[in-house]
Amino acid sequence: MTEVLRLDAVSKVYGKGQGAVAALREVSVTIPGGSFTAVMGPSGSGKSTFLHCAAGLDTPSSGSVRLGGTELSGMDETRLTELRRQRIGFVFQAFNLVSSLTVLENITLPMRLAGARVDRAWLEEIVGRVGLAGRTGRRPAQLSGGQQQRVAIARALVTRPQVVFGDEPTGALDTMTARDVLRLLREVVDGLGQTVVMVTHDPVAASYADTVLFLADGRIVDAMTAPSSEEVAERMTRLGAYAA
Ligand SMILES: Nc1ncnc2c1ncn2[C@@H]1O[C@H](COP(=O)(O)OP(=O)(O)OP(=O)(O)O)[C@@H](O)[C@H]1O
Predict the structure, then answer these.
(1) Which terminus of the chain is more exposed, N or C, with fewer CB under 10 A?
(2) Is 46 touching ligand 1 by the criterion CB < 6 Å?
């Protein structure tokens, strides 16, 4: 399998001197194309920092991040913005849709921002896949939370990115709706060959992934393949994630 994302000895230190916080400590990991990876760990273990560094939203203090063979370190903000627009998709907890735009306009927004032409056949395929055919003229407020997240997933896919990053994508959804969204992400990986990397607190959400990476104190301390939610919860308990 081809590698799509690679981190080599990535460290991130916030602040300076006595107040400095090492959020990531020499993290190295390779994410293969067409895989679904969940990132878990106790609060403050570095999950958001990992996601931000891997997605070019933040710059590591040291180490290397490669996306599809392109080295991100050393890129200026303009090039990073361009790279994020063209090669990365994002799905957030809070959906982050534009309320004044229709479903279709929200989905195609990344293409318009990039000044790129929308591939009609691809658009139809993703709208169908996320189950929004017939609802593309609505505005976000006319949709349920689960449907809004489906719009966000379609928007993340429209540019055919190399990686879709999810930051607690099911965090704002009820249990049943969250399952539907997780099944959709799984289908995006299995049916479209997309690569998905998702930060989550939820062991059930993590169990939809092929691999779970466990972070503790800025380091990857374990990885689990074909995880069950029970195994993930047990590992998280041993990391002290649920301590009062
Ligand atoms: N901008 C910042 N300035 C200073 N310290 C920061 C900053 N962002 C994060 N940190 C610190 O870095 C460490 C890792 O934070 P991070 O947000 O990556 O953890 P997390 O695992 O995502 O946490 P949570 O599950 O609570 O969201 C924490 O100690 C945090 O306080």
Answers:
(1) C
(2) yes
- The one-letter code for the residue type at 233 is A
How far does the centroid of ligand 1 lie from the alpha carbon of residue 39, in Å?
14
- Global confidence as pTM: 0.94
ipTM: 0.96
Residue closest via CA to ligand 1's atom 26 equals: 43
Q: What CATH code would you report for 3-96+161-238?
A: 3.40.50.300
DSSP state string for 149-178: HHHHHHHHHTT--SEEEEESTTTTS-HHHH
Which ligand 1 atom sits closest to the C-alpha of 15? 4
10 Å Cβ neighbour count for 78? 8
Tell me which residue has its CA closest to atom 3 in ligand 1.
Answer: 14
Protein residue with its CA nearest to atom 12 in ligand 1? 23
Residues 217-221, mean pLDDT to the nearest whole number: 96
Q: Which residues contact 63 (CB under 8 A, 6 or more apart)?
A: 7, 8, 9, 10, 11, 26, 27, 28, 73
Of ligand 1's atoms, which has the minimum distance to the CA of residue 41?
21
